[in-house]
Amino acid sequence: MKELKEASCGVECGGAVIPSLLFADDTSLFVSDGPGVKNSLDVLVRLCDEWGAKINVQKSGIMHIRQKKMERADVRYVIDNVEIPVVSQYKHLGCAIDEHLELNGMVEEKAMAGKKALGAWFSRCRVELGDIGVGTFRKLMTSLVESAMLYGAEIWGCNRNMEEVEQTQLRALRMFFGVRTLHPKASLLAEMGDLPVRY
Questions:
Q1: 18: left (phi over 0), alpha (psi -120 to 50) or beta
Q2: Residue 63 has what pLDDT?
Q3: What is the number of structural domains in the chain?
């Protein structure tokens, strides 16, 4: 948004100033200090007024991203007599980001989404189709489970704690081959021709 850049809003990243991320009706503003919050939100409120748009304060939040030892900034902003809440975690486009940029919660959430998707299609598929081949299994796994489980992996994929996501992948392989929990992981992956999700 050129109006935000003209008002000197945003944070520097790789030599460029990034004032916001926009997607459909979602907006995330970036600032480097307390006064920047007011400055950026003033510009956004003015633009919304000009365009006849309304900010849903109940779906909004102010989050101070910082190191754990640093105290949270005392920042307040009011729109239409309603204060925007200060939050410790915020979900943007389906990805939960916390104030310390810890990604474990997001990884757990995505692993759970993968488990739900796996449970929903695998048993039903066996009942309706009987045994399925490796090719069909891989296509269903990719389109139904991995699409849910790996959503936003560009953000959280650098996390070293990938155990829960990998367990969902291994659970699917055990279900397909009809083997028990103690079956060697390397054998399952080799039979399917897969790599662990972390790769």
A1: beta
A2: 93
A3: 2
pTM here is 0.69
Triad 157, 195, 143: Cα angle to 5°: 70
| In contact, 145 and 117? CB cutoff 8 Å | yes
20 Cβ neighbours under 8 A, 6+ residues apart: 1, 4, 9, 10, 27, 28, 29, 30, 40
The residue-averaged pLDDT of 107-125 equals 85
Instruction: Supply the range of the domain harboring residue 66.
Output: 2-98
Residue 36, domain member (yes or no):
yes
CB 72 within 8 A of CB 66: yes
Residue 58 and residue 60: Cα distance in Å, rounded? 6
Q: What is the pLDDT of residues 144-164, one digit of tens each?
A: 888 888 888 877 767 667 888
> What backbone torsions phi and psi does residue 52 show, to the nearest 5 degrees?
70, 25
